User: Fold this.
Amino acid sequence: MVSSSKTSDSSSHRSKGDQGKQGFSSLTWKLNQLRKQIQTSRLLSIKEKVERNRKILQQHTNHLYDLAMAAVTEDNTSSENMLSNRMVNSLHNFSPWDWVNGSCDRDGHSQEESFSAGTLVLGNSGQKTVVQFVKLPIMDRIPPYTTWIFLDKNQRMADDQSVVGRRRIYYDPVGKEALICSDSDEEFVEAEEKHEFSHGEDQLIWNAFQEHGLHHDVVEILCQFINASPAEIEERGGKLVEKNENSTGSHAAAEEAMFQNHAFLGRSLDTALDSFDNLFCRRCLIFDCRLHGCSQNLVTPSEKLQSV
Assistant:
């Protein structure tokens, strides 16, 4: 009897181990199939986006081409009338009286004499604008950085504490721009970038955790499909579980609110108004009054007048 029980226990353990191996092998096959489905759906979505963007880009380029062709035709028409355009938009217009009296030459000569070497004359449509240059004074260069240390006594500083020969601010080889050095000698270790999970990877993790739970072997199998560490996959699985619980809770609350709305709609208007009248206190003008209660008799104005 003892030997038979031992053999039955060993056979049961073997059957459980075989079932676990078969389950993990089936999980690998399912994840492969799911990955293929996700890849095909992603390729289809990418093709749709490319086609949609191609149409938008074609419309945009056609509009730009029309604008460019319109500008070219306008330039061709305007180049034919270049002489007339220069006549209309000349730098300076002279009247016949200026040439007869000779005031044109005198004015031009006097203006040239009045203009110094530091002026600029701009002319457009018969008007002149004089711009006077301002010469900036020459300033000395900024001296190098120097520090002073106040001493308690007039004593000579130790050699190891002296700042002579030490550069507090580091300069480039030219010696112009200062390169700020860090105050601390410690080197900051950059944080490792965490893996950003895509929608397809979330589907793989969620399906695996739903069927086999958060198991170490399941995480190792997922590492073969997702380029992330086991800790990141476990953390992501926990977040997905919390997100699903929150979504189910909100969905249940929405269904309950919808059921209540349907319950109110199923009743008649008089029944609904009676319930609101019982909840509202007409003395305190609040709902759920603790002082007077909620079951108050309604008094209409006609009944009140008859009693008087």
